[in-house]
Amino acid sequence: MSARYRENQVPSQVGKTAFVTGANTGIGFDTARVLAEKGARVLLGCRDEQRALKAMTAIRARAPRASLAWVELDLTSLASIRSASEQVLAEGQLDLLVNNAGVMVPPKTRTQDGFELQFGVNHLGHFALTGHLLPLLKQQPDARIVTVSSLAHRGGKIDFDDLQADRSYSRMKRYQMSKLANILFTLALSEKLAQAEFGLKAIACHPGGSNTELGRHLGPLKYLFLPLELIMNSSAEGALPTLRAATDPDAISGDYYGPAGWGEFARSAKRAVIDPAARDSQLWERLWQVSEGLTGVDFKL
Ligand SMILES: NC(=O)c1ccc[n+]([C@@H]2O[C@H](COP(=O)([O-])OP(=O)(O)OC[C@H]3O[C@@H](n4cnc5c(N)ncnc54)[C@H](OP(=O)(O)O)[C@@H]3O)[C@@H](O)[C@H]2O)c1
Predict the structure, then answer these.
(1) pLDDT of res. 175
(2) What is the per-residue DSSP string for 187-223?
(3) Which of 86, 132, 162, 285 has its CA 20 to 30 A from that of 221?
């Protein structure tokens, strides 16, 4: 593998089926696009039909023979997550789940099930989705579950005393909490899969700073970030760590990939650094128990 990882290093995905959440734009779109170009059947988990169809048209413009399907998925609703899972389970095969969809620093909002939005969508929604899909993933011995975190996980804290931000709400702290939860979930899942002697891998990744629609809730603060756009990843570059986590034959369960450039901010993809505070197995386990309780999803692991 050359030092600078590129899209053309993604191996053939012919015969594989991938499900990518938030695939209509940004990192999820470029992840879905490359997987489809490499021959995978790609299921696009999106909440808006028109946006999903537009993304599928854009992928087919690059890969006319792409095998694509829209799966209606709204991560603010446990009922939607269950019905999306049923559609995916009916496919009969799943080799790759990419937990990518995300929301950053919105005003205080609740999901349809009453969870704080960032914790609910970014973590709990993907936790429930993964639990529902595990029986199908387990049938493929080399299947992978890739979860997209962020540099922002560093310094994040899980506020177990106020999980739904009933007492106080800091937009950025809640984003950090949700992205730390993505890492803790991956490490816990990796450990539990190994203990159960399942071969499938749980891997995390992050796209550094990438120019996508993620800043939609930043408001005027967006202008502060404008100079950064000069050095940021494009969405396609930002998808490289996800693609590497999803397809590199040398990736192992529990790995974490991010950009290869300075400070893991941009450029290409390599193994990245997890905040040492996240390597606390008691913390993983506590979050796992809480997540099972809140979502009602039992992984049976
Ligand atoms: N861009 C960065 O610099 C950066 C840095 C660190 C981490 N990340 C992570 O990368 C991932 C992708 O973000 P992005 O930068 O590509 O952002 P983006 O362009 O805003 O895309 C986010 C995707 O998530 C979907 N989504 C949001 N809420 C959803 C819900 N309730 N149900 C289903 N789908 C939902 C969006 O769908 P709609 O279009 O319908 O809203 C969209 O497809 C996120 O997990 C984010 O935290 C990004």
Answers:
(1) 98
(2) HHHHHHHHHTT---EEEEE---SB-SGGGGG-GGGHH
(3) 162
Extract the tokens encoding 58: 């854009």
Amino acid at 24: N
Q: How confident is the model at residue 3 (pLDDT cuts 50, 70, 90)?
A: low
Reply yes or no on whether the pLDDT at 187 is more than 70: yes
Mutation test residue for ligand 1: of 179, 213, 256, the one with most atoms within 8 Å of CB: 213
Read off the pLDDT of residues 252-299 as tens digits, 9 standing for 90 and up.
999 999 999 999 999 999 999 999 999 999 999 999 999 999 999 999
Q: Whose CA is nearest to atom 7 of ligand 1?
A: 150
Using CA atoms, how far residue 167 sits from 113, 160, 161, 179, 216, in Å, is 18, 12, 9, 20, 25
| Domain assignments of the chain as residue spans, ordered by start | 13-293
Phi/psi for 107 (5° steps) reads: -60, 160
Q: Candidates 154, 212, 264: which one to mutate for ligand 1, based on the most atoms within 8 Å of Cβ?
A: 212
**Furthest-apart CA pair in the chain: how many Å?**
51
Mean pLDDT within 241-246: 98
CA distance to 128, 156, 224, 253, per residue, from 99 (Å): 11, 19, 29, 15
pLDDT digits (tens, 9 = 90+) for 108-145: 999 999 999 999 999 999 999 999 999 999 999 899 99
Q: Are 117 and 111 spatial neighbours (Cβ–Cβ below 8 Å)?
A: yes
Amino acid 11: pLDDT:
98
CATH superfamily of the domain spanning 13-293: NAD(P)-binding Rossmann-like Domain (3.40.50.720)
> What are 241's two structure tokens?
């760590």
Q: With a 6 A CB cut-off, is 74 part of the ligand 1 pocket? A: yes
